[in-house]
Amino acid sequence: MKILLNNATERDIQHRLKVEQLYVQYPQLKEIENDLYQTLTRLTRGLIGWPNPESQSQLTEQLEVLRKRRRMYLEQVGLPDNYNVPQARCSICHDMEVVEGVNGWELCSCVRKRQQEYRFAGAKIPAKMREQTFENFSLQYYSSTEMVDDRDNQYQKAQKALKGAEEFTDHIIRQHPTKGLYFFGGAGVGKTHLVSGIANRLMEHDITPLYLMVADLLDEMRKGYDSTEADQHATALMEQAKETPVLILDDIGAERATEWSIEKLFQIINHRYLNQLPLVMTSNYDLDDLAHHMGTGATGIRICSRIVETCRIFRLDCDDIRRQKRREG
Q1: pLDDT, tens digit, for every residue of 248-306?
Q2: Which residue numbers delimit the AAA+ ATPase domain (predicted)?
Q3: Does the predicted TM-score (pTM) go above 0.85?
Q4: CATH code for the part of the protein at 124-328
């Protein structure tokens, strides 16, 4: 388990920095607080018997004057009385990260939530995709009368794609061998929603996939030519794409097809093919069009060949779902 920085410590550091900035802005406030602290210290020492030239009544009077001065100054600059008291982020554990449960001490839900955020960040799953699940994948946007091919209408195609995504995910969770998936169809037909459903279901079972937009992946790798640091990052990303337990490549074919980009994609896909590591892809292209997009070179043909051999292929077709939702209001 990743060791988490104690939230209370992090909160205190950030709060102290904020208070120091206020003291730079309001130096008189810092002077008042220092006088209060010194007066309280002398009063405390007197109470425990330390020698003190000032009487307790004198110190008490000074303290009241300083407190009044502090209240007036805070009102003047518009700061609350508790400006220098850090506020807990979690109302359950008060940033201590543990709570006492029925069976003893246990991690607070805020820690589990933060761990989940770290995992989503590591999986590179955008916030929008975290809302898209199998449960809210709606078949209502697919026509039961519009035929996609000789066998299936839009609704039937979407039904098969959803079932295929759920079966794939179930096999991964159960650690059963399974083919990958290739979803294709136009913009707004539900491809990314399905791969989001896969990613979210896997995350629920503590399996962290890696989600990459193909164009973004290639851009990051191109930056490797700019500096040594960027090259190290690009190399690490390439290795992560090759070795991650489940890889999701979104929108293959949207990238500018060059000999270099096609070769990099082939290296990832071929490595996963040889090592029997599952791969999920989406594209606007069917495989014939994808091969055409990649040109007549042998590498593009080999990519499509690997996809045919390793993936179940599903087509999605309907009017753009985003536009349908806007029409619904």
Answers
A1: 999 999 988 899 999 999 999 999 999 999 999 999 999 999 999 988 778 889 999 99
A2: 177-319
A3: no
A4: 3.40.50.300
